[in-house]
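WARN  no MSA supplied for this record, continuing single-sequence
INFO  ligand: alpha-D-glucopyranose
INFO  echoing inputs
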Amino acid sequence: MDAPRHTSADTRLLGHFDDKRREYVITDPRTPFPWINYLGCEDFFSLISNTAGGYSFYRDAKLRRLTRYRYNNVPADDGGRYFYIREGDSIWAPGWKPCRTALDDYECRHGLGYTQIRGQKDGLRASVLFVVPLGANVELHRVRIENLSTRERRIRLFSLIEWCLWNASDDSTNFQRNFSTGEVEVEGSVVYHKTEFRERRDHYAWYSVNDDVRGFDTDRDKFLGPYNGFDRPAVVVDGEPRNSVAHGWSPIASHCIDVALGPGESKEFVFQLGYAVLPEKHKWSAPGVINKAPAKELIARYADGAAVEAAVEALRGHWDELLSRFAVRSADHRLDRMVNIWNPYQCMVTFNLSRSASYFEAGIGRGMGFRDSNQDLLGSVHLAPARARQRILDLAATQFEDGSVFHQYQPLTKRGNAKIGGNFNDDPLWMILSTIAYIKETGDFTILDEPVPFENDISRSASLLAHLQASIEHVVNNLGPHDLPLIGRADWNDCLNLNCFSINPDESFQTTGNPDGRVAESVLIAMMFVVYGREFIRLCRRVDRHEMAGHAQTHVDRMIAAIETHCWDGNWYLRAYDADGNRVGTHRSEEGRIFIEPQGFAAMAGIGLEDGRAERALDSVAELLACDYGIVLNYPAYTSYHLEYGEISSYPPGYKENGGIFCHNNPWIMIGEAIVGRGDRAFDYYRRLAPAWQENLDLRKLEPYAYAQMVAGKEAVTPGEAKNSWLTGTAAWNYHAITEFILGIRPDYDGLVIDPCIPSDWDGYDVTRRFRGATFEIHIRNPHGVCKGVASISVDGAAIAGNRVPLPEPGSACRVDVVLGPAAEARTA
Ligand code: GLC
Ligand code: GLC
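INFO  complex generated
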């Protein structure tokens, strides 16, 4: 466990990492923003903050919201799963909130898929373990209360959750209806939430406890009392449950339990928040009485604290296995904790939830983004290959015959979202990235032959390979005046809206304007076309589709020529041509002279490597865009609204896509630096951004164990302040950059490529990589103090040529010794 570090007088101690247990330990509940964790990895998901705030949902955060949560509320983060301990006049909660009664001790441990919160007051200790077990649609709360004092204690324990009336959007707007629909049933110690079950719903939820209760409440207004908040509910203050039964208004579930504890004694209770789906003919056990069998089965399955402990153990085992697929042992424990624990964990969260539900995404907005979900696979394909395969096929099914795609699809229906439509012209290419990552990881070329519908219409199907080909064609068929790809609504940068021209604040920058504009071109898409076009060509050759490969090669060569002719600005690459054919991202402009996106992609595309332009562009990034907390997106930021650029110029300077550190794209620069061999710089950028290195957490505000989408840039009023943690492509791209380009262990079709690019003062490091069923124990040594270059590799003591370690037999293990230094052999990749 890491000793808590103070670096400057103004940093307050908020918590520390416990790497051994793979937990982050928060020791002060007053974090600058709620620091959250995610429970659940299959169908049942929960967000839980360090004070037990948050909510739960089944699969879809909008349509199947189980508990209510009010975003951007005051006091902040009110609403969650609360336990009140009442002893005489004293009322407190183990997570500090909602009562905010001062505690003698507090600790929140966020682990992988579980959270444990412990509070202590006047010789009583209450700890609550929250977990969503594998294989069950329930959230378990194991509450343990210990009497640390020498006298007998009599307390009353109250639980509380507030039901959401399923559709989270309606729930927070349609009060004229939903104040009349709420219904519950109470049976023993179980409160069932059955709103709308009488008509079209086939699901209900429950909140139970495994002990007898003194009483219960299900009517929020009776429980809280008029005009009260969660901090001092009338029922808790009075100490007596009302046994209220909700009819409309706002149903809740609260239990009241009498607890008597002798000196040193402790007691444990298991609460369960569960969800069940029933077939139509089994919905009722009697008229108006719901069929409780599925709830009872799960309540019995987790009948005591030991069952909860076992669920946590099973989850630990699950993560042991997942994390053993890539594990580094280096001289820097911060690096190890990012690569081995928190970054892959965040990658799985983004895989599961895309951009739907976090403390910045309200769970009622976007579905699965086409570009986001494809890129997310970069960090999760090795953790969930079978699910990744299905994800790729689902995404591909939203493509049109002309290669364009729906920008988003709905997770419940898997259908493209017609409201947003398409015309984000980078989208199709990201599917090549994800498919290639999948095949290199798994060796499963059969995915290319899978029949996949166009536009979700099964009668119009073609192989996945044909879909990839359509992605290529979409670019080829949509070139502008400089033979560069037309940008459409926007490319990766959603806010560079070159065909929008909006003067009406009530319009969306994303969907307004003329997406078919035939002039505005994207240099980023041009470079992506070269990177993913080359990968496509290599893949086609690999599966003997030489004609397809040759065709793509012709267009890639043309694109390279167009980039070389039209995209160099003297010291960096241009960003775009606008709808008037003017350059964007040029030294000739006052603002927005340089943009980050093309500078890393050039090196990735192999453009400018020979004539030094790629390095020059990266040097310009170091000079103009890099700052203490990362690399800003553009510089100088726009200070006024530009009709011809759209949303990018709508943000105040230094924030979001206008001069913010938009963390997602920083790894493109790290990868670019790794490609040109500058490992010191690549890692320096990595370190500036990685959460585990951040020391001034009051400034950063957000979790030190999760990447944020954006950190305020150097021109902002609050540089270094992070926003929008968790659901961001930053997770996948940073994982990709550090594991495959800096540590340099890269899956390929026929083996594992070893191509590190590290700081020259590193002596070496070890990596365990489980790949294609075999285990590689890789030992990398750097006796000559180089950044890059493999001098020799031996596998089980026998030297190999080149730097691609061939695949051993599945189930076997091999030891790979790598010596860095002046290359003895030409490298293969
Ligand atoms: C958001 C979007 C992503 C986009 C990025 C840059 O993170 O989810 O699709 O690429 O912003 O605008
Ligand atoms: C806004 C955000 C951007 C996001 C987009 C789509 O433009 O700045 O990050 O990708 O909305 O929701």
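Confidence is low (pLDDT under 50) at residues 1-10, 825-829.
INFO  checksum written, moving to next record
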